[in-house]
Structure formats: structure tokens, C-alpha cells
Backbone:
């Protein structure tokens, strides 16, 4: 396999993580209190299942749209990154590398809907204070329906993503691959999240940005490490 292609796909994964982290910050990287938006966060709080709303209310429509679209447009980078991770596992042979690749590829292919769908319930709820009270029940119902769709789409992507990364690490530990066995400690789904979650403790607004982008900051760590480890892939197999 062309080493340059493996390197390029790893770099694509890194760039994809950066784009998606920016999308997260633009879309859900804010914070709002009930005192700022009493109608939505206090009066109607029990009728709004969309818990991300407080992170999105401070932002205007162009920012929310940009946050949704940057991730949607950059998903080919993550798809290339999935192939990069698969190349690291290929020496293991059998079904495990392909199964991990299938889970990661499908999860990334499904993820733009899960990400961009945050935009729609947020825009419905943001419209409520500007409209007559008689229109509020209809919009609350529509927002709840959009919120259910958003949650389903998000979990549809995140669950196979976690399973794919867990299978990747299990393969590294069980079979010879291009990855050293110690790398499973960092490439597993938990460690990168712990590293990136530390940033959430930083003062605002940086802490809020890390909180919003925690998943993709984690994948920035994953793809950066993998790209370094596979820079000379094909020349070494770790047993």
C-alpha cells in the first residue's frame, strides 16, 4: 500500500477533526441562563426536551448555519481517516479490521445528520419569543419532534463510532498490526475524551468551547497519534 496515501488519509483525519471541532464551537459552544431567556429556559423549560438549546440561544442564525455546514462539508476528511485507521489494522487479517472499518465508516457517513440536525430545533425554539402566544404550542410541538429526530440521528452515529474504536483497540491488543500495543491506551474511546475534557475546566469561553468540541478534540488526538505511528506503515508490523 502506498505510504503516501496512508499519510494523506491520516492528515485528512486530523483536518476533519479540526473542522468538526470548529463546527461544534460555532453550533453549541455558548451558554445561556434562564434570566437571559426566561420564556424558553424557565416558563417553557418542562416542554422543551432539547437540552442543547441553552448552548445555542446566544448565537444568531448565520453562526448556527455555519456550524452545521462546516461539519457537513468536511465529512469526506473523516471518511478518509477511517480508511487510514483500517490500514493500521490490516496486518491482523481476518474479519476484525474490516469490521472496525465498517463501523467507523458507517458512523462517520451517518454523523452529518446527527450534527446538522441541532440547527433545526434550535431555530424553531428561537422563533417562539418573537411570535404571538397562540403560535407557541404549535412551535413547541414541532421543536420536540425535531429534537427527537436529532437525538436519534446523533446516537445512530455515536454508538457505532464508539464500537468501532473499541474494536480497533481490541484488535491492536489481540493481533499483530502496524500499531504498538501501548497505543490502544490512547486510541480507545475513553482516554482521548478524558484528555480533551480537561479543557472544559478552563475559564469561559475556552472551557465552553472544549466542552462543545470534546468528541472531536478526542479524535484530533486519535488521528494525530495514528498518523505519527503509521508514517512508515508497511515497513513494520508490531506483534
Residues:
Amino acid at each position: 500500500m502506498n505510504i503516501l496515501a496512508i499519510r494523506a488519509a491520516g492528515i485528512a483525519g486530523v483536518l476533519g477533526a479540526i473542522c468538526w471541532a470548529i463546527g461544534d464551537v460555532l453550533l453549541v459552544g455558548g451558554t445561556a441562563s434562564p434570566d437571559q431567556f426566561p420564556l424558553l429556559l424557565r416558563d417553557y423549560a418542562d416542554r422543551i426536551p432539547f437540552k442543547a438549546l441553552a448552548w445555542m440561544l446566544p448565537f444568531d442564525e448565520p453562526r448556527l448555519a455555519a456550524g452545521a455546514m462546516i461539519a457537513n462539508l468536511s465529512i469526506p476528511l473523516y471518511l478518509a481517516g477511517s480508511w487510514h485507521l483500517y490500514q493500521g489494522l490490516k496486518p491482523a487479517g481476518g474479519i476484525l479490521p474490516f469490521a472496525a472499518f465498517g463501523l467507523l465508516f458507517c458512523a462517520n457517513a451517518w454523523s452529518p445528520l446527527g450534527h446538522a440536525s441541532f440547527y433545526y430545533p434550535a431555530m424553531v425554539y428561537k422563533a417562539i419569543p418573537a411570535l404571538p402566544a397562540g403560535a407557541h404550542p404549535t412551535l413547541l410541538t414541532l421543536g420536540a419532534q425535531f429534537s427527537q429526530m436529532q437525538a436519534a440521528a446523533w446516537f445512530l452515529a455515536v454508538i457505532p463510532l464508539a464500537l468501532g474504536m473499541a474494536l480497533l483497540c481490541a484488535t491492536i491488543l489481540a493481533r499483530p498490526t502496524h500499531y504498538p500495543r501501548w497505543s490502544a491506551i490512547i486510541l480507545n474511546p475513553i482516554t482521548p475524551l478524558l484528555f480533551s475534557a480537561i479543557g472544559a475546566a478552563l475559564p469561559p469561553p475556552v472551557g465552553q468551547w472544549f466542552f462543545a468540541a470534546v468528541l472531536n478534540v478526542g479524535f484530533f488526538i486519535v488521528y494525530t497519534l495514528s498518523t505519527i505511528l503509521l508514517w512508515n506503515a508497511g515497513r513494520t508490523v508490531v506483534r
User: Anything to note?
Assistant: The radius of gyration is 20 Å. The chain has eleven helices and no strands. The mean pLDDT is 94.
